Amino acid sequence: xxxxxxxxxxxxxxxxxxxxxxxxxxxxxxxxxxxxxxxxxxxxxxxxxxxxxxxxxxxxxxxxxxxxxxxxxxxxxxxxxxxxxxxxxxxxxxxxxxxxxxxxxxxxxxxxxxxxxxxxxxxxxxxxxxxxxxxxxxxxxxxxxxxxxxxxxxxxxxxxxxxxxxxxxxxxxxxxxxxxxxxxxxxxxxxxxxxxxxxxxxxxxxxx
Length: 208
Hints:
This protein has a single domain (5-207), classed as BirA Bifunctional Protein, domain 2, CATH 3.30.930.10. The chain is α/β, with parallel strands linked by helices. The strands form 2 sheets. Strands 1, 2, 6, 7, 8, 9, 10 and 11 form an 8-stranded mixed β-sheet that branches. Strands 4-3-5 form a 3-stranded mixed β-sheet, with no helix packed on it. 37% of the residues are buried. It has helices at residues 14-29, 99-115, 180-184, 190-204, and strands at 5-12, 36-42, 45-49, 67-70, 77-79, 83-89, 122-124, 127-132, 135-145, 148-156, 176-177. Strand 8 (127-132) and strand 9 (135-145) form a beta hairpin. The longest helix is centred in the middle third of the chain and has 17 residues, at 99-115.
């Protein structure tokens, strides 16, 4: 079985999280460490992939939080307190260098974790991410560097989702965002749910 190192970082600035990712990508590529799953929260921030299309940022000059342009696919998303962010740093060479399969793997991990809190989640055809009926509970956007993955997923656990009102989340018009708390009326701490996700990530990695 492949052993994954799970690292809970707490709440960190986006820039600091990116520095940690970059260093971990270099370590994984050089085989100094094995697969690593960075788990954390961010202070409020918007991110967007490297695209000329920035229409998913509503009123860019009036956004209440910083915007970071990063090397992942996709349009704008929001990160903030109450949201579990996961950055798997994984060499895809042993997994066929198949980015599509890796995206489906991340969706499967989150769907399995949500089952543990009695939420039946699913995919939606043609859309990356995890959904509860037609409400989006988790966003996924990844990048690769020499086939080592970075960036990853953001799953809404608890708290306010008002940051999403400043953007068109992932460029999907009229999307409704939800969270564990909104779906069940209660929620674990982000750290506690990170342990649930890490368990399923470790268990399911052998299937990737």
